[in-house]
Amino acid sequence: MPDTIDLDVPAHEHAARLRAGDYTARTLAEATLERVRAQEPSLHAYITLTDELALAQAAAADERLRAGEGGPLTGIPIGVKDLLSTKGVRTTAASKMLEQFTPVLDCTVVQRIQEAGAVIIGKTNLDEFAMGSSTEHSAFGPTHNPWDLDRVPGGSSGGSAATVAARGVPLSLGTDTGGSIRQPAALCGILGLKPTYGRVSRFGVVAFASSLDQVGPFGLDAEDVARLLGVIAGHDPNDSTTAPVPVPDYTEHFGRGLGGLRVGVPQQFLGEGLDDGVRQAIEQAIGVLEANGAVVDRSVTLPSADAALPVYYLIAPSEASANLARYDGVKYGYSYTSGASVEEEMSLTRGGGFGPEVKRRIMLGTYALSAGYYDAYYLKAQKVRTLIRREFEAALSDHDVILSPTSPSTAFRLGEKLDDPYAMYLNDLYTIPANIAGNAAISIPAGFADGLPVGLHLAGRPFEESRLLGAAHAYAQLTDWHTRQPSLPAV
Fold first, then answer.
1. Distance in angstroms (rounded) separating the CA atoms of residues 369 and 322
2. Domains of the chain, CATH where assigned
3. Beta-strand relationship, 401-405 and 452-459
4. What is the pLDDT of residues 224-236, one digit of tens each?
5. How many whole angstroms separate alpha carbon 6 and alpha carbon 37?
């Protein structure tokens, strides 16, 4: 047994070493917890660490490994976004409203990773109720970007991205409503995949916008992301929105290279509002694709994609307004109990339990759904949503992937955009269209600008995650961006 474990390697390397008996799952869990605790004072990627649960799961994983059983996740440490219900472990959604809430069941995704033998290290930080692009809107304080602690990690799944980028854990789970996996993956220099809507169960996940939310994986390379997606994907009878589509081997496109890959590059995604350093990195990435056999078409257009941002900020807040109505201080969660009437107590509960960004979106959504405005705003947004989906279908009938930057800039400074909601919302400009259309999409490391990571965004056809992961794997064989890592306190 080694004196020290190399915690900087991807999950599949840990899996191979665990099967070989180089070290045990318990030893790996202990080393991981030690590193995470050393990083937390500067990173703040977690809301709750689950030491006892992790060690118990590691012991169970060791039994399976000794018996010659288990799969690619057996004994592998993982972080879980604190939006996913965990039985017996508080699930806060980073909100005062749920600060003391402890679920009585696991969400389907957590149940599946536990059945696969994964070791849950903790619940990761996020923007409150997943509403944000910087992980600054958390009742428990912001997460910091491991590449520069004065900058944001992106959001809303910033904690999940930051802990993987810092090599705290090799894998994590996030959710993506408008870019909340892919944007923090880009800003932290790792891979993040948003599966097709309906590919992964949302049962037991705290709801934000039900027609947009999707759970997905973060990892250090395409193989790790593929293995984790293979565990969590598939129909769930508890979630009627999951599609009864077989789960493939998500590594089936590995080893095919980039030859013949048809890449559409809408020029509208490389125009105004894009930082020069990000544009340069993306153009260099396109050059790598072309030099290795990909067929790049810069004439493809998505005419309605420019409307995706306003469409999103009508549909998502409207659904949030409905979903968050349940937090009234009566059934569970934070409750203000000193009001003069039931109405006053409910008002003060919601006023004190929700943070400013959540309140802003509830008000936006309530307005869009109100009498006299429903047809003008929400209904029209749904019609434009249909146009965007059809344009993606048309573009992807002639192309395998649609390429763009993941984010218009690298990680910005903490506090820089907190007082300008519109500037904050623009961070999801390139990721939102895939959510509106319901398509699969991935962000992969594609270089640096001013010392900060840049993400390359690929959107594909529904249920063709394998093709996206194959392209990501092939690109990684030609570059080393995914191997770069920040310097943080380590064990």
1. 10
2. 8-491 (3.90.1300.10)
3. antiparallel
4. 999 999 999 999 9
5. 17
Q: Tens of pLDDT along 138-185?
A: 999 999 999 999 999 999 999 999 999 999 999 999 999 999 999 999
pLDDT range class, residue 342, cuts 50, 70, 90: confident
Give ∠ CA 60-168-217 in degrees, rounded to 5: 75
**450 CB-contact burial (10 Å; exposed 0-12 / middle 13-18 / buried 19+):** exposed
Catalytic residue numbers read 81, 156, 180
> Structure tokens of 209?
């916008």
pTM as predicted: 0.97
411-461 pLDDT, tens digit each:
999 999 999 999 999 999 999 999 999 999 999 999 999 999 999 999 999
pLDDT digits (tens, 9 = 90+) for 146-157: 999 999 999 999
Rounded Cα–Cα distance for residues 326 and 11 (Å): 38
Q: Are strands 77-81 and 171-175 parallel, antiparallel or unpaired?
A: parallel
β-pairing, 77-81 vs 215-219, is: unpaired
Instruction: List C-alpha distances in Å: 212 to 10, 228, 269, 432, 469.
Output: 29, 21, 22, 10, 21
405 with 457: CB under 8 angstroms?
A: yes
Q: How far is CA 236 from CA 87, 113, 198, 276, in A?
A: 18, 14, 10, 44
